[in-house]
Amino acid sequence: MKSSEKLIETGRKTIKQIDYSETSATKIDIVELYSPENKLYYLVIQTFNGNPKKAEWVLQGQTNAKKTASQKIIL
């Protein structure tokens, strides 16, 4: 997965959300991305910090592919 690739999000599931207070939380999502350029699907894990009450989330760290496939991964 190159950083210059145009990726389309095709699926997202929240795995875990840890609420520290009403306005502070961390959540972990599993995300499926598709690259029309090379016709591959990527499965990535993203961690966010933010305010669950306002649904405001900021991505923490980098997003790295955990799995690559030619067919959809998340159904």
Please tell me about this protein's structure:
- There is one protein chain.
- The chain has no helices and 5 strands.
- Strands 1, 2, 3, 4 and 5 form a 5-stranded antiparallel β-sheet that branches.
- It is an all-beta fold.
- The chain starts with 7 loop residues before the first strand and ends in a 6-residue tail after the last strand.
Explain briefly what this protein structure is.
With 75 residues, the chain is an all-beta fold. The chain has no helices and five strands.
Top keywords for this entry?
75 residues; mainly beta; five-stranded antiparallel sheet; 0% helix; 64% strand; elongated
SSE blueprint and pairings:
Blueprint: E1 8-21, E2 24-35, E3 40-51, E4 56-60, E5 65-69
Antiparallel strand pairs: 1-2, 2-3, 3-4, 3-5
What is the overall silhouette?
elongated
Distance between the amino and carboxyl termini: 21 Å
Q: Outline the biggest β-sheet.
A: 5 strands, antiparallel
What is the β-strand count? 5
Strand content: over 45%
Structural class: mainly beta
Q: Report the order of strands and helices.
A: EEEEE
Percent helix, as a range, is: under 10%
* Uncertain stretches: none
Question: Can you give the mean pLDDT?
Answer: 92
Helix run count: 0
Radius of gyration: 14 Å
